[in-house]
Amino acid sequence: MAEYDVIVIGAGPGGYVCAIRCAQLGLKTACVESRETLGGTCLNVGCIPSKALLHASELYKESTTHFADMGLNVATPKIDLAKMLEYKQSTVDGNTKGIEFLFKKNKIDWLKGKGKITRAGEVTVGETAYKTRNIVIATGSEPASLPGVEVDEKVIVTSTGALVPGKLPKKMVVIGAGVIGLELGSVYARLGAEVTVIEFLDHITPGIDSEIAKTFQKMLTKQGLKFVLNTAVQSATVSKGKATVTYKSRKDEAEGSIEADMVLVATGRKPYTEDLGLAHTGVVVSQRGQVEIDNHWQTAVPGIYAIGDVVKGPMLAHKAEDEGMAVAEVIAGQHGHVNYDVIPGVIYTSPEVATVGKTEEQLKEEGRKYKVGKFPFMGNARAKSYFMGEGFVKLLADAETDRILGAHIVGPQAGELIAEVCVAMEFGAAAEDLARTCHAHPTCSEAVREAALACGDGAIHA
Length: 462
Ligand code: FAD
Ligand code: NAI
Description:
This protein has 462 residues and is of the alpha/beta class. The protein folds into 3 domains: 3-142 and 270-331, FAD/NAD(P)-binding domain; 156-267, 3-Layer(bba) Sandwich (FAD/NAD(P)-binding domain); 345-454, FAD/NAD-linked reductase, C-terminal dimerisation domain (Enolase-like, domain 1). Helix content is 32%, strand content 25%. The chain has 14 helices and 22 strands. Strands 1, 2, 3, 4, 5, 6 and 17 form a 7-stranded mixed sheet that branches. The protein has a 5-stranded parallel sheet with strand order 8-15-9-10-11. It is globular and about 65 Å long. Bound molecules: flavin-adenine dinucleotide (FAD) and 1,4-dihydronicotinamide adenine dinucleotide. The site of 1,4-dihydronicotinamide adenine dinucleotide has 26 residues, from helix 7, strand 12 and strand 18.
């Protein structure tokens, strides 16, 4: 029987990063993956393909709007959907092959097939059993289902089907105004669809600073997305290739229905542990389906760990990666650590939304005294030069110590801008530290500095 120090089950960003770090730390490592390619949800049907379609559709939209404003008179580009999907797939392939290369480079065995934990210290893949000192469960998540809504991945789709459309919809309904709904809804809106987003709550993007969420919704509405809030979808059915979605208002119980060529169900994801054999092992799974872990990612069974979407916390690739590295360090006898207070979240629409740390609502609830430094992109020369003067940076700092507690950005390159705030927060920086740091001109990052200045004596360009 082959023997390992660590067997990681699942090769998503949690699992493959964990396997690489284990190997780097001198542990004999294998990774089980049942997909034909490595990289998990993120690389195959998540972050990477969705960002490729966001990029292509953003450039298309730009060519039909601001090109002319800049004196670039081109004929409206035609959308070649097959070619666009080919481009998306080549981006995916390049990345999944890259992980395969890294596995070879680090001498990690890829055990192809579905892994099952028979007991602590043993994993089977197909008919073959492998002995191992440690097991890391990194089996990720899958789309949550919605009662009354039958997904066929053609007309009624999850994000997976929405990434491989047979044709472009003219009318689309998105169920859920969360991250997937708004990113993929934006893609189709830019490519010409009339998009209606139906959301259960009375606001979009739950959990995000409410001032940012309100501004963001206004921006998306200007781009053509329609929002039906405070509304519960009752059913979605398909007849002759068209879907009908029925819904009920949560305010006045008024019922309505809407037809669409494509319905995207984006109401969250749930942890995936099917056929993993957990029932026999003593590993505890919560009512929400999450594998329960302690502060060192260990399950109730010594030697079995779990990370990523399958455990508590935000379902984000970089959170899974950080846990993957940390658990490898713990297994190797080091002090793996993840700072859950500094995990950024980004929505890759145009403009982007990026957040880290506490929201204003959270600080109010905690009764903490804080100050707000805000700066609009209208005062940023670089942003204005490419028609992105809407949105703002909002920095929250402790009223007494000036320590940065959170940052919330809606505007150009928000996903890149948030990184410097993350570094600052990791170093326990004060808003004044950011404000006194020289930022290159002209860059959008100056807006972050101005927000930091606004926490003190005032922003210069506001
Ligand atoms: P996964 O990536 O889900 O990987 C788990 C892997 O385990 C899968 O490949 C699965 O096949 C395999 N597996 C499961 N069970 C077994 C078994 N028994 N044996 C063998 N293999 C098994 N996050 C971001 O941070 N940024 C984004 O921009 C972003 N965009 C997204 C867009 C979409 C459309 C979606 C759906 C998700 C997106 N996410 C994004 C979320 C991100 O994809 C997940 O948080 C991340 O992939 C979780 O990583 P993971 O390693 O925990 O699990
Ligand atoms: P989500 O949790 O972000 O949003 C789901 C939305 O659906 C919520 O607003 C919720 O109120 C709403 N909803 C739930 N039930 C509903 C119903 N019956 N009718 C109408 N609305 C309903 O989940 P989403 O968008 O599916 O994404 C899943 C996960 O994938 C997220 O946790 C996210 O972290 C991750 N992801 C991250 C991305 C990023 O980082 N850029 C991109 C895409 C996904």
